[in-house]
User: Which sequence fits this backbone?
């Protein structure tokens, strides 16, 4: 939730018990497949040089500040330099079964005061790439920094041209944050730097993913993974948020197929649609000083439901169970949410933060969305029922030729959203088949209009449901 100070300015969350974190030490970190030891030239030099020398060329060093090395003497000097660094701790990745050192990585840019630390200088030999040891090495270092030392931000930075490094960061669960232009000069050239991070609040879900992936039962007799990292089906929570998320993802999938059977491979910019919907939502807040206008909370809530449609599309296309887990956990926060809205200034601030995050990452921010929903007076049930209603109406539109201009948005003397308002007020929202009940009722009402029959009208003035515009 957005906090406000005495001047009604938004401020970050309070950390009353925060203390500077200890610096990492030259310790040994043990795993199932490998262990991490502080680099020691005498202990690790021979096996590291042999492992790196097995590469066909020097391309693995292109995006690192050192290397490639043309002689053992150069390499030994490099090892001596990194082993004596006072601003970083470099660790050798040692294979448990053989005791061979096969690569290095480091904890660097250490900021104990703010609890920020970076994993960097990841130099894998061919024998280490795409192995369980490589993934476990990252897991061990993350766990040490976040669980062991209490750091709250774990960073990954790389050259924007280094596509393999960016792919690795995303696979490991890092969130893309943006680009620092002309940030570094190295090897006689300029570098734009891509920033990624993991926070301590994200770590528990990631930790469960790593542990599930690294478990021996995740690999077959040939050592091949059964599930990709982040794709273990057992990690999704079973709370109310997960149940509602599953229902909404199913409904969104059906709607997407009606709109475009090839939607999964279509290059739809969902983040842009979300951005535009945010602007429409802002229009229903009373922030304009040149025009008096009351806040329209029902319409604001409707825009949130439209944003949710595009957000679910983004989550579906990502096909990432970690993102689904984070979404379900975020939705759980609405289970006990008060059904009352906050003031407009707080809503606008939260909306701006959400829109900025979507534009920066180009993906849906479920935590930010849930915060907006909560501030707007939506609970988990009202959010779901509102979404189910709008989804049913959208499915009806597609089934009745909306894309080709054949659909009639007005039936008799009412708009389709007014018909839905009447039907939602009559149908039992607690039933599991609630979405289909709405769709069938809409179909019957619409078919009656097309056949020339008369519809039962509810003459009472009904406010539009949250799920409609």
Assistant:
């Amino acid at each position: 939730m957005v906090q406000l100070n005495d001047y009604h300015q938004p401020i970050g969350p309070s950390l009353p018990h925060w203390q500077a974190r200890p610096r990492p030490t030259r310790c040994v970190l043990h795993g199932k497949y490998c262990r991490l030891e502080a680099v020691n030239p005498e202990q690790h030099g021979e096996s590291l040089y042999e492992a790196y020398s097995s590469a066909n060329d020097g391309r693995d060093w292109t995006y690192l500040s050192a290397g490639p090395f043309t002689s053992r003497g150069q390499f030994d000097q490099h090892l001596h330099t990194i082993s004596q660094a006072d601003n970083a701790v470099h660790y050798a990745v040692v294979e448990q079964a053989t005791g061979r050192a096969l690569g290095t990585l480091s904890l660097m840019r250490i900021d104990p005061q703010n609890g920020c630390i970076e994993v960097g200088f990841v130099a894998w030999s061919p024998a280490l790439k795409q192995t369980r040891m490589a993934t476990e090495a990252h897991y061990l270092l993350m766990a040490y920094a976040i669980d062991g030392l209490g750091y709250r931000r774990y960073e990954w930075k790389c050259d924007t041209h280094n596509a393999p490094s960016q792919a690795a960061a995303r696979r490991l669960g890092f969130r893309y944050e943006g680009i620092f232009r002309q940030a570094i000069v190295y090897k006689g050239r300029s570098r734009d730097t891509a920033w990624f991070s993991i926070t301590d609040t994200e770590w528990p879900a990631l930790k469960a993913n790593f542990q599930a992936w690294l478990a021996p039962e995740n690999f077959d007799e040939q050592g091949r993974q059964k599930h990709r990292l982040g794709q273990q089906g057992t990690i999704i929570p079973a709370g109310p948020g997960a149940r509602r998320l599953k229902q909404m993802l199913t409904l969104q999938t059906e709607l997407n197929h009606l709109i475009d059977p090839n939607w999964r491979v279509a290059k739809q910019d969902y983040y842009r649609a979300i951005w535009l919907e945010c602007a429409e939502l802002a229009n229903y807040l009373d922030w304009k000083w040149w025009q008096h206008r009351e806040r329209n909370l029902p319409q604001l809530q409707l825009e949130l439901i439209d944003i949710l449609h595009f957000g679910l599309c983004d989550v579906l296309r990502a096909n990432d169970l970690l993102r689904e887990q984070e979404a379900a956990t975020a939705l759980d926060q609405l289970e006990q949410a008060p059904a009352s809205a906050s003031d407009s200034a707080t809503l606008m601030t939260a909306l701006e933060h959400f829109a900025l995050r979507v534009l920066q990452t180009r993906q849906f921010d479920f935590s930010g969305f849930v915060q907006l929903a909560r501030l707007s007076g939506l609970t988990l049930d009202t959010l779901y029922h509102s979404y189910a209603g709008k989804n049913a109406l959208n499915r009806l539109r597609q089934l009745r030729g909306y894309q080709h201009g054949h659909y009639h948005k007005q039936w008799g003397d009412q708009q389709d959203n007014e018909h839905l308002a009447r039907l939602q007020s009559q149908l039992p929202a607690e039933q599991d088949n609630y979405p289909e009940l709405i769709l069938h009722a809409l179909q019957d009402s619409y078919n009656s209009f097309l056949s020339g029959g008369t519809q039962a009208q509810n003459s009472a003035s009904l406010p539009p449901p949250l799920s409609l515009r």
Q: What stands out?
A: The longest strand covers residues 175-186.
